[in-house]
Amino acid sequence: MPAPPPAADRAVVLLRRLGADAIAHPGGTLLQHLVRVRALLALWEARPALQLAGLCHAAYGTEAFSPAVLGLARRAELALVIGPEAEALVHLYALCDRAATYPGLTHPSGRYVERFTGRTRSLTLDQRRDLAELTAADELDIARVDPQFRARQGPRLMALLVRLRPLLSSAAWQTADAVLTGRHDADPAGPASPAA
Length: 196
Fold this sequence. Notes:
By secondary structure, this protein is mainly alpha-helical. The chain has helices at residues 7-17, 30-43, 48-56, 75-82, 84-95, 98-101, 125-145, 147-164, 170-181; strands at residues 24-25, 28-29, 111-113, 120-122. Strands 1-2 form a two-stranded antiparallel sheet. It has a two-stranded antiparallel sheet with strand order 3-4. Helix 4 (75-82) crosses helix 5 (84-95). The chain is globular.
């Protein structure tokens, strides 16, 4: 009996079945964006669970992107495909109230606020690092493929990533610096293709 396909392949099949390849997103479709985010995290040598979370980070929708291809009531379905650790990161990312959470994310208490309920909790250092790295990959992919977004949101994004820098890997910071300062030749991810 052949081995089952890797989790990333199963996740792409699920996302395609749920219509992510038909939802417009900067640089093409939502599925193309999700694949690029995972590739960026892989380039940064993120562990497999974080890469899978990057691939599925918008499955439940996010504060900045409301279409959800998979409702929160179907968390178990996603966990079966990508594993419970990766699914927990997708859930953490989806529920994040960014305005309330990001300003204090580098603080050891790691106060995290859920956007639907206002409920607060503390995050571990690893959770805070994962949230920062996933945020950087998500936002930097859009900045790489959408010059208008980069021109309009680049200063805000740079300010956010400077604040989160203590939690970011050096590879993530190098990409941020290259993309947001216009030194694309220094971007370790190389130029982004909208068709990627």
